[in-house]
Amino acid sequence: MNKKNIxxxxxxxxxxxxxxxxxxxxxxxxxxxxxxxxxxxxxxIENLVxxxxxxxxNIDKALEQLGSNVDIVMDTTYCQNVIQKVxxxxxxxxxKHTVVVSMIDYLQYKDEEQLISSVLxxxxxxxx
Length: 128
Prior knowledge:
Layout: E1 4-9, H1 13-25, E2 30-36, H2 43-50, E3 54-56, H3 59-66, E4 72-75, H4 80-92, E5 99-101, H5 103-108, H6 112-127
Parallel strand pairs: 1-2, 1-4, 2-3, 4-5
């Protein structure tokens, strides 16, 4: 399997947990390439930037810079307008490659293995 690039939106409690779980458990399969959070004072950001992960304070700049290099956008905010904005930006850019996963999607699976399988299937379908 090729390594999948992830962009995480939201670095609150859930976003931090998601980051820690995936980088620890699926180290060779996934790489977090960017994070987005409105709170630039979040102490967790410094830890990620030290690891070479790009920080953005808004969605537009992140998707403009990273574009189709992102395989999965993981939204941990619970805000429906965030998902809608991401879909709109991807659609306007003609990006049919990137899969968007909301917290609702994330929580409906019993474990991360099911989520990963689902995302990879979506990614394959989007690419074809």
